[in-house]
Structure formats: structure tokens, C-alpha cells
Design a protein that fits this description.
This protein has 735 residues and is α/β, with parallel strands linked by helices. It has four domains: 22-105, Peptidase S8 propeptide/proteinase inhibitor I9 (Alpha-Beta Plaits, 2-Layer Sandwich); 110-321 and 470-593, Rossmann fold; 324-464, Glucose Oxidase, domain 1 (3-Layer(bba) Sandwich); 635-731, Immunoglobulin-like (Sandwich), CATH 2.60.40. The strands form eight sheets. Strands 7-8-11-6-14-16-17-26 form an eight-stranded parallel sheet, with helices on both faces. Strands 18, 19, 20, 21, 22, 23, 24 and 25 form an eight-stranded mixed sheet that branches. Strands 30-37-36-32-34 form a five-stranded mixed sheet, with no helix packed on it. Strand 2 (71-75) and strand 3 form a beta hairpin. Helix 7 runs parallel beside helix 14. The protein starts with 10 loop residues before the first helix and ends with a strand. Bound molecules: 2-acetamido-2-deoxy-beta-D-glucopyranose (8 copies). One 2-acetamido-2-deoxy-beta-D-glucopyranose binds next to helix 11.
Length: 735
């Protein structure tokens, strides 16, 4: 259920959170009165009648006086639903009413920059439409925003676009401007961001250009969002405790009616049925109004089937690295230098060396009596403060920095993690360098064999990383447990070590004892890749204001970079969950996406057919001849789950719309694996005009496959100018 926050501080916290979430999930139902969401589909005739309907439904079940008390929220601007506190019996009665499509408990979801734009080719020099761009409004559902950040400075912005119907209702001590044009809060007093998360995501998507932004001098450069001229509207549904479904749904209800062009939600949970997921429901109604929603895939990787962003009308973003890494050098008293990983902005060690002490030699008495071995890992409450004061502690455990900080050490040198792929590092409250095993052993033996061992941890530098992009270990993976024939996530984008705006009242390391205040911070997570994809989608929209959400999504998917198969050796990750289950169609390429040649478009009727085939009562009654399954949906990627041990032949009917050159001929090419055959009929498509549509059928066949295998191929339509690539995935289930 609840996923993990961005500040994926370290893997241990990760695991604890996941377990806690499961406990919550399964114990929640026997509590007397919880908040439930009653979903009733599209709006009725008008706002007033929808809202009064909600109260009357409740009155019939609960009686007049209790009904008003029970009603938590009425959604009546963009769709028809309400939230109420209900007991088990009341719940059953309401669920049995025929106008009610689903009733589900309001879960708690968790929150899950700018060299990254250059890395994917959207440079400062890229072609732009600044006038159109300044009419784009990006809706951000998150933990609020820090309005005074330079990234939201409105110098040079005109008044909000006339289509804007929202308002600035940011609560206590909050003002909007011509950049940050709207704010709303749900069950909170102010839209001011005290977490840093919402400020970070908003500035990645649409922050203004800011010269000289850095994290205490690190990653210095010009910070900018994907669409720096666009406007931002903030919907605060989250804080450090997470985000409740009934608040998220309220944010969607408002954002759609306020007139945003695009919604970015860096919030995600574990897989759940579409009709019980606030993001699936909200984004469905957004899509209906021509608004694309981009959602983070989640931070529950690298295990397979962990992504909670599963609906085909959502654009789901996995997180990958860019070509730079942060290193923190360690220099020993004997002059030896080691290159470790670390985001170390501290300079207090500048120049001089300090005493080094191994954790095992700094044990507190209480720890020794527990287990003498624990201190060498710098386990919790194991270090004696008076022994580590003024020193750098050398820890055999990758998370020893936490205890070193608690005990008041000057810094820490830790062993790089070996339990999970350590392909990202976080901002820590004290100078720390994580060394790879053999280097760490050299340092440790220096400490053990030297009379007065001394050392220094240098301020971080950026080093080029040639192995990029690679999907981060934490990024949630497919396959899709709810719609098994829809590939998820859809694409990947930068989500590792992203510099972006931050809240100055939130400690940059998230440790309350970290007294630094930062206007820009470096964070990692699919929360950071999501606004990159949203910014890219907004950028595409500035060239094609008439494109449907599915056309924009298709453009980003079919022009994505095929991912690098090169990957650093990962001993613990599961091969099944890698490849397309990690990155979908590949890494977004915003500039290419403005000219995709062909698009795969999907409209509301198509989604309804698919939902009906899944027996999801998402939209009231199903059309009579509702043919259409998941694999028949006109999706830009093609995926099918086949039975283990049985040969198969699967057809994917598809229709493309010409958005390239009026008079053009596209020739198909299938790039396939020896385990499957792919054929396309017809294999050539000739267009006479723009917006012309042509249909074709892709047939994928193969012999019996073993259990738990993922086979991939691709189809490329080429007119020599455009290469329109669709990823094809055939897989077998777990057993
Ligand atoms: C916004 O930017 C302008 C121009 O750089 C500057 O003069 C002004 O002080 C900034 N406003 C705020 C509120 O920081
Ligand atoms: C409003 O927020 C600003 C920025 O944090 C702060 O300086 C100011 O003291 C706050 N004012 C009030 C009344 O809380
Ligand atoms: C509003 O927030 C408070 C405090 O966080 C919480 O106790 C309460 O349940 C919330 N109410 C609703 C309706 O979500
Ligand atoms: C600390 O390092 C910075 C550059 O990283 C340098 O400019 C400065 O002079 C150094 N200060 C001392 C006291 O060594
Ligand atoms: C910490 O070390 C000091 C000095 O060796 C010693 O006096 C003290 O008892 C130790 N405290 C604990 C809690 O181990
Ligand atoms: C330190 O050296 C001694 C003697 O060589 C050895 O027994 C001990 O294991 C070493 N300790 C560490 C932490 O390397
Ligand atoms: C369309 O393209 C073909 C081949 O390039 C060319 O022969 C034909 O004249 C073109 N037709 C029009 C109407 O431009
Ligand atoms: C692919 O097609 C060829 C030619 O029909 C056939 O020989 C081969 O066995 C097929 N491969 C698979 C995996 O079905």
C-alpha cells in the first residue's frame, strides 16, 4: 500500500516502511469507522445536484443528523464521488446501491534537477515556443511549495492565462504570483511546503531559470524546469505522513475544473484495482477533459510487480541515472587517496586531517555487553560519544554514518552497501564517503596498523559515469498485476541525484538534527523522474496544443531511447523484473517527441471497452457489443502474458495517425528475439494527408516458454525521417 518517500534514506528504512504498510493494509478493515470513498462515475447535470445527491445518499443510510457528520468530502466539480466515515454495516448498504460504482477505504499513499534536461537533449538552445509555453499550466499534487523560491520568481511573467479558473487559496502565510498562479490545500492549514518534496518536483517540471543554483556549491549550474515559462498550480494533499486517497481525489477534482493542462503526481502506492485507486480515478476524469496525468512508478524496486502506477491512461515514470555521479575522496595521513561515493557539501575538513577511529575501537559499554561485534558496524547506540568526538569513524557497515552522526563524530567512512545495488546516494548530515570493498579494507588496515591514523574527507566532486542511463534499483517494476497485457512503467527519466528547489525549513538530509537550510537540494526517487516526464509532456504540448493526452504519451514512448543493456553487475536483483519491466519503452527524448511521425491514439470509448473486458465497473454500464481486451487497446507498446509451456499466436490490432509529413510512406521492421516471431500486416503504410489513420495487425507467435520469462522485441515504422518504435513484450507468469 504505502510506498516509499523520495528521501529513500537507506535501505533499512525502506524495508521497515513496506512491512508497516502491509500491516496497515490488512488491519484497517476491522476498525469501527474509517474514511471511505464512494465513487459514482462522471458528473450529473450540475455541481449542485451532485453535491446534494451525496448528502441524500448518506441520509438514507445514516439518518439526517449523522449524515452531515459523516460526510468528509463531496467531489462535484469534475466527477461524482464523496468521502465519508462509515461503519461496516453502512458500508455494505452503500456499496449495494446501483448508482455506486465502487467503495474503497482511503489509503495513505507516500510521496515517493538542471543538468538532467541537458542529459536528455533538451538543452537551453532547444527550439521553444515561449508564448505558447507561458499559457501552459502544470498542476502539481504534492506536499505544497515554497513560494519565495527563486525557481518560482515571476519577474517577466504576464498575468495568468485567461483560461485559468483556479484560485490562490494556499491558507496561512501564502501568496501566489504570476508564475505560481494557484494553490489549494486539503485538510491542512497552509500550502507552504515544509518537506521540500513538492518544491523539488514543481521546480523540476516547470521551475524558472535560476543562475548559479547549487547545493552548498555542489552541482552548481543553471536550474530550470522542463518548461521554464509555464505556470504552476499547486494542490497540497500530502505532508510527511503521506497523502490520503480522499485528499488526492479532491486535488484532482479541483485541478481538472481549474483548467490545468497537465497533472504531475509524484505519489504512488502498491498495486491496487483501478476502481479503488484515487490516482487511477482522478486521472481518468482528467484524461476525459484532455489533461494528461504523469505518475511516478514508485520506489519499491528492484522486485518485479511492485509498481502501483498501472492504468493505461496514466503516463508512468520509472527512474534512471544520468551521466554524472557524486564522489567524495578520502585522503589518509600517509597520502593515499581513495574515491568513494558521497554527496558531501561540508568544507570544515578542508585542508587538515583529523584522527580516524574504527567503530570496533569506539564501542560503548552497553553495546559491548549486547554483542561485541556490533560496534565495528557502527550499529545503533554502539558508539561511545566521548571516543568519537572530533574524529572520523570508520564503519564496517554501510549505514554506520547514522550512528556516527548520533554519537557526534566529525565524519564517517563506511563500506559501500552490498545487500542491494547501491546505485544512488543520499544527502547525509555529516561528511561521509562510502568506499568499495577492497579500498575500504586498505583504509581499515591503515587505521589498525598506524599509531595515530589521520584522514580527511574532501568536498564532493562530480565524475562522469559512462554507464547511463540505467534504471535505479529503487524504481518500481512491472509486470502489471492488474492489467497484465499493458506494459508498465511506460518510460524512464532522470531520478537519481537531481538538484532542484527545496524548502529551507526542511533539513536537507531529512535528519531533524541537521541544522543546514538549503534553497536547492539533491534528491533521488521516481518522484524526481515523474516531473521530468511531465515537463517533457508539457514541452511537447507547446508544439501541438491540439494533441490528446494519448498522442502526447505516444510521442514520448515511440521516440524514447532504447535502453542500454550494459549494466553494472548486480548480484541481488531479479532479471525478470529488469529490461522493459524496469524502463518500459525506454528513456524519454523530449526534443524527438515533438516530431514523432505517427501516434497511437486512444480515446475514452477505447478505455471503457478495455475496462468492460476486465469487468471493471468504472463507468456505469458497458456498451452492448463491447469487444476489446487489454492487448487490443491502441497502446504505443504491445504486451501479452502467455501461458507457461504452451505455444502461442497473439494478434495486436493497432491504428496510427499521421502527424509527420502529409505524403509519406512508412515501412515496418520487426526487431525480434529467436524465441518469438513478429509479423506485420500490412507491412507498408502510405499516407496522403496529415491526421489520416491507418490500421494494421501485429502477429506475435512462439513456441512454449518456461515460467517466469520475459521476451522482448520491437516494431519500428520508418519513413526515413521518423522511426516510430513500439516495444513488444511477451512474458510468462511467476509459476
Ligand atoms: C525576482 O527576480 C528579480 C530579477 O532577478 C529580482 O530583482 C527580485 O528580487 C526577485 N524577487 C524575489 C521575490 O526574489
Ligand atoms: C511567512 O513565511 C515566511 C517564510 O518562511 C517567514 O519568513 C515569515 O515569518 C512567515 N510569516 C508568518 C506570519 O508566519
Ligand atoms: C485531517 O487531519 C488531521 C490531522 O492530520 C487528521 O487527524 C484528520 O483525520 C484529518 N481529517 C480528514 C477528514 O482527513
Ligand atoms: C577549502 O577549499 C576551497 C575549495 O574547495 C578553497 O577555495 C579554500 O581555500 C579552502 N580553505 C581552506 C581553509 O583550506
Ligand atoms: C566511554 O568512554 C569513556 C572513556 O574511555 C568511558 O569513561 C565511558 O565509561 C564510556 N562510556 C560508555 C557509555 O561506554
Ligand atoms: C587489527 O589487527 C589485528 C592484528 O593484526 C587483527 O587481529 C584485527 O582483526 C585487526 N582489526 C581490524 C578491525 O582490522
Ligand atoms: C507523394 O510522394 C510520392 C513519392 O515520393 C511522389 O511520387 C508523389 O508525387 C507525391 N504526391 C504528392 C501529392 O505530393
Ligand atoms: C518462426 O518462424 C519460422 C518460419 O516460419 C519457424 O521456422 C520458426 O520455428 C519460428 N520460430 C518460433 C520461435 O516460433
Amino acid at each position: 500500500m504505502a510506498a516509499v518517500s523520495t528521501n529513500i534514506s537507506h535501505c533499512r528504512i525502506f524495508v521497515v516502511l513496506i512491512v508497516a504498510a502491509h500491516v496497515f493494509c490488512c488491519g484497517a478493515t476491522d476498525k469501527a469507522k474509517d474514511v471511505y470513498i464512494v465513487y459514482m462515475g462522471p458528473l450529473l447535470e450540475g455541481e449542485y445536484s451532485t453535491a446534494s445527491l451525496h448528502l441524500s445518499v448518506l441520509q438514507e443510510v445514516l439518518g439526517k443528523s449523522s449524515a452531515t457528520r459523516s460526510l468528509v468530502r463531496s467531489y462535484a466539480r469534475s466527477f461524482n464521488a464523496f468521502a465519508a466515515t462509515l461503519g461496516d454495516e453502512e458500508l455494505k448498504i452503500i456499496a449495494s446501491r446501483k448508482e455506486v460504482l465502487s467503495v474503497f477505504p482511503s489509503r495513505t499513499l507516500k510521496l515517493q534537477t538542471t543538468r538532467s534536461w541537458d542529459f536528455m537533449g533538451l538543452t537551453q538552445a532547444a527550439k521553444r515556443n515561449p508564448t505558447v509555453e507561458s499559457d501552459v499550466i502544470v498542476g502539481v499534487i504534492d506536499s505544497g511549495i515554497w513560494p519565495e523560491s527563486e525557481s518560482f520568481n515571476d519577474t517577466g511573467y504576464g498575468p495568468p492565462p485567461t483560461k485559468w479558473k483556479g484560485t490562490c487559496a494556499g491558507g496561512l502565510n501564502f501568496t501566489c504570483n504570476n508564475k505560481l498562479i494557484g494553490a489549494r490545500v486539503y485538510n491542512r492549514t497552509s500550502a507552504r511546503d515544509v518537506e521540500g518534496h513538492g518544491t523539488h518536483t514543481a521546480s523540476i517540471a516547470a521551475g524558472a531559470k535560476v543562475r548559479g543554483a547549487s547545493f552548498f556549491g555542489l552541482a552548481k549550474g543553471k536550474a530550470r524546469g522542463g518548461v521554464p515559462s509555464a505556470r504552476i498550480a499547486v494542490y497540497k494533499a500530502c505532508d510527511s505522513d503521506g497523502c490520503r486517497d480522499h485528499d488526492i481525489l479532491a486535488a484532482f477534482d479541483d485541478a481538472i475544473a481549474d483548467g490545468v493542462d497537465l497533472i504531475t503526481v509524484s505519489i504512488s502506492g502498491y498495486p491496487i484495482d483501478f476502481e479503488k485507486d484515487s490516482v487511477s480515478i482522478g486521472s481518468f476524469h482528467a484524461m476525459e477533459k484532455g489533461i494528461l496525468t504523469v505518475q511516478s512508478a514508485g520506489n519499491n524496486g528492484p522486485s518485479s510487480s511492485t509498481t502501483g502506477s498501472l492504468a493505461p491512461w496514466l503516463l508512468s515514470a520509472a527512474a534512471s541515472n544520468t551521466d554524472h555521479d557524486f564522489v567524495a575522496k578520502v585522503v589518509l595521513g600517509n597520502g593515499m587517496t581513495f574515491i568513494g561515493n558521497g554527496i558531501n557539501s561540508f568544507t570544515q575538513m578542508n585542508g587538515t586531517t583529523f584522527p580516524l577511529i574504527h567503530g570496533g575501537d569506539a564501542s560503548s559499554t552497553s553495546c559491548r555487553s549486547r554483542d561485541p561485534e556490533l560496534a565495528r558496524f557502527c550499529a545503533e547506540n554502539c558508539l561511545n560519544s566521548s571516543l568519537v568526538k572530533g574524529k572520523i569513524v570508520v564503519c564496517d557497515g554501510s549505514e554506520g554514518w547514522g550512528e556516527a552522526f548520533r554519537a557526534g563524530a566529525l565524519g564517517s567512512i563506511v563500506l559501500e552497501g552490498f545487500t542491494t545495488d547501491q546505485d544512488f546516494i543520499v544527502v547525509l548530515p555529516l561528511p561521509t564517503s562510502a568506499l568499495e570493498g577492497s579500498q575500504y579494507l586498505v583504509v581499515r588496515s591503515y587505521v589498525n596498523s598506524t599509531k595515530n591514523p589521520r584522514g580527511n574527507i574532501l568536498k564532493s566532486q562530480i565524475m562522469k559515469n559512462s554507464v547511463a542511463p540505467v534504471v535505479a534499483s529503487f524504481s518500481s517494476r512491472g509486470p502489471n498485476p492488474i492489467a497484465p497485457d499493458i506494459l508498465k512503467p511506460d518510460v524512464t527519466a532522470p531520478g537519481v541525484h537531481i538538484l532542484a528547489a527545496y524548502s529551507p525549513v526542511s533539513p536537507p538530509s531529512h535528519d531533524p538534527k541537521d541544522k543546514r537550510s538549503a534553497m536547492y537540494n539533491i534528491m533521488s526517487g521516481s518522484s524526481m523522474s515523474c516531473p521530468h516526464v511531465a515537463g517533457a509532456a508539457a514541452y511537447v504540448k507547446t508544439f501541438h496544443s491540439d494533441w490528446s493526452p494519448s498522442a502526447i504519451k505516444s510521442a514520448l514512448m515511440t521516440t524514447a531511447w532504447p535502453m542500454n543493456a550494459k549494466k553494472k553487475e548486480v548480484s541481488f536483483s531479479d532479471v525478470y523484473g529488469e529490461g522493459e519491466f524496469a524502463f518500459g519503452a525506454g528513456h524519454i527524448n523530449p526534443v524527438k517527441a515533438t516530431d514523432p511521425g505517427l501516434v497511437y491514439e486512444t480515446f475514452i470509448e477505447d478505455y471503457i471497452k478495455m475496462l468492460c473486458s476486465m469487468q471493471v465497473r468504472f463507468f456505469g454500464t458497458c456498451p452492448r457489443e463491447s469487444k476489446g481486451s487489454q492487448k487490443d487497446l491502441n497502446y504505443p507498446s504491445m504486451q501479452v502474458r502467455v501461458e507457461t509451456g504452451k505455444s502461442f499466436t497473439v494478434e495486436f490490432p493497432r491504428t496510427v495517425t499521421n502527424v509527420g509529413i502529409a505524403n509519406s510512406t512508412f515501412v515496418s521492421k520487426a526487431i525480434t528475439d529467436s524465441q518469438i516471431n513478429v509479423s506485420v500486416k500490412p507491412s507498408i503504410l502510405s499516407f496522403k494527408s496529415l491526421k489520416e489513420k491507418k490500421s494494421f495487425v501485429v502477429t506475435v507467435s512462439g513456441k512454449a516458454l518456461p515460467a517466469r520469462i520475459r521476451v522482448s522485441a520491437s516494431l519500428v515504422w520508418s519513413d526515413r525521417t521518423h522511426n516510430v518504435r513500439s516495444t513488444i513484450v511477451v512474458y510468462t507468469p511467476n509459476s
